[in-house]
Amino acid sequence: MSGQTAAEQRVVDAAQAFVAQHVAPHAQAWDRGQADSRTALPAAAAAGLLGIEVPVAHGGLGLSFSCKRRVAEVLAGADFGLAMSVVNTHNVAHHLARMATPDVARRWVPALVSGARTGCTALTEPGAGSDFSAITTRAHRVGDGWQLDGRKAWIVNGTHADVVVVYAQTEPGSGARGIAAFVVDGTRNGFVREAPADSTAARGIDAGGFLLQGYRASADELLHPPGEAFKAALASINGARAYVAAMCCGMVQESLRVAGAHGEQRHTFGKPLHDHQGWRWSLADAAIDLAAARLMVDAAAALIDGGGDAQMAAAQAKVFATRMAGRHIAALMHAMGAEGLREQHPLLRHLVAAQVATLTDGSTEMLLDRVARGLRHAG
Ligand SMILES: Cc1cc2nc3c(=O)[nH]c(=O)nc-3n(C[C@H](O)[C@H](O)[C@H](O)COP(=O)(O)OP(=O)(O)OC[C@H]3O[C@@H](n4cnc5c(N)ncnc54)[C@H](O)[C@@H]3O)c2cc1C
Question: Given Cys at both, which of 42, 77, 300, 330 links 242, Cβ 3.0 to 4.6 Å?
Fold first, then answer.
């Protein structure tokens, strides 16, 4: 890929080595709940994956968004859940390094980049997902600080994260205008973790929820004041949409590799599956759409790196890539016959993950609306 520095290529190479040694051999056990993916975090940290965009002054690598997007694709090829988990902790470190007070950043960023702590970002609630401005988690002033009360649900790393960016309403009825963001310590009184959702999709990605009951945040733990938090969430969401699209590309790439290998060794009617024209066309279709999705992701990533307006490009890339992944992973499983259903292959996990990808960081319908609004303004 053009425009990539030697330092960035080293991180992508390190991600590939990390996947081969620490992710691919364990992903099936993580998915079944038989092992804990957090055991891979020290190796992820050693490879630099928890600090790619984090400034060097805060212990990170200070590299580009495009580098993170490439790493996300590599990680998700082996396990979408681990990829989301790593990227979400990384994002909290990056967010705090840019927006927190120096004291708060010093308290948390090195611990996140080293994998000693994990992070998550909590917007969604049991009663508010797509309609983010309808959140009811309440923040009100107490002395110099704040008290937070409410419930968050379906949060990546929510089963264990202890550095939590929480969005809360300061003025009920004011919608987006009243929303503020806080950094919350998951080990402090008033933070109560809930049992994870009973779902394969939630288990693989460590998704869970928590209650805030009289949780006290100090004044310097306010990350974005009312009026700025909603805009800040929207500003970072283009990156999330682009890397989720990249993760879909990684899952299709790996599914293609596994189905292709199966087609070479499985024989029907006296020859390998791959020698049947009708069979190999399903692989060709997947490869063509994968190439198109990657170009869309690269276009969005280039805009993000250049500080351009990536709203349309990121929304288009995510809609296209998630649909592409859902369609082609299912087709590639089918191309493997019953063998494609075995849990030793990643396709079934990837298919569930492709469904999750249609919801996180803006559902398909929200993104279609984003694109439609962009078309209108373009005239
Ligand atoms: C595994 C997993 C991990 C997640 N991780 C996080 C996280 O880390 N942090 C976080 O804050 N959230 C997270 N989420 C939540 C995710 O952002 C929400 O699921 C998403 O915003 C959709 O909200 P909802 O599920 O409440 O669906 P709803 O908002 O109830 O919508 C239901 C369906 O209706 C559609 N819909 C809603 N409104 C409209 C409309 N106006 N027009 C047309 N269609 C509409 C939606 O697209 C969706 O298909 C996660 C979700 C999952 C499944």
Answer: 300
pTM value surpassing 0.90: yes
Select from 325, 157, 334, 327 the least CA-distant residue to 250: 325
Residue 262 in this model has a pLDDT that exceeds 60 = yes
| Type of residue numbered 35 | A
Please name the residue ranges forming H helices in 79-158.
Answer: 80-99, 102-113
Ligand 1, residue 362: give the atom nearest the CA: 21
Strands (DSSP E) found in 20-169: 119-122, 138-142, 145-155, 163-169
Mutate to test the pocket of ligand 1, among 80, 125, 154, 167 (most ligand atoms within 8 A of CB): 154
Return the half-sphere exposure (C-beta side, CA atoms, 13 A cut-off) of residue 136: 7
- State pLDDT tens for residues 154-179: 999 999 999 999 999 999 999 999 99
Pocket of ligand 1, candidates 88, 91, 124, 247: which has the most ligand atoms within 8 Å of its Cβ, to mutate?
124
